[in-house]
Hints:
Blueprint: H1 3-6, H2 9-26, H3 29-45, H4 49-62, H5 68-78, H6 96-106
Helix pairs in contact: 2-3, 2-6, 3-4, 4-5
Amino acid sequence: xxxxxxxxxxxxxxxxxxxxxxxxxxxxxxxxxxxxxxxxxxxxxxxxxxxxxxxxxxxxxxxxxxxxxxxxxxxxxxxxxxxxxxxxxxxxxxxxxxxxxxxxxxxxx
Length: 109
């Protein structure tokens, strides 16, 4: 079960921040933009609206305007009360070892 599903916001945010650091290091821009979107969702869930909007604005700088993710993030920014969307870690570019670390971090028990 994910930290997000358990309501363990601090642990989930820490994992996503570590994931974001790794993705920057390996040049995984797709992973960077998705992780920024997900961090925004976590902060939004905690009612930290300014932090959520900051992550979503940053995600837009990495997304192509015609992509579905761009539209989703733009909708999140333009909606007064964004719908609750569970963040997902989608990553096809990182080596198996890094993916394993992220899964280990996000999955408990």
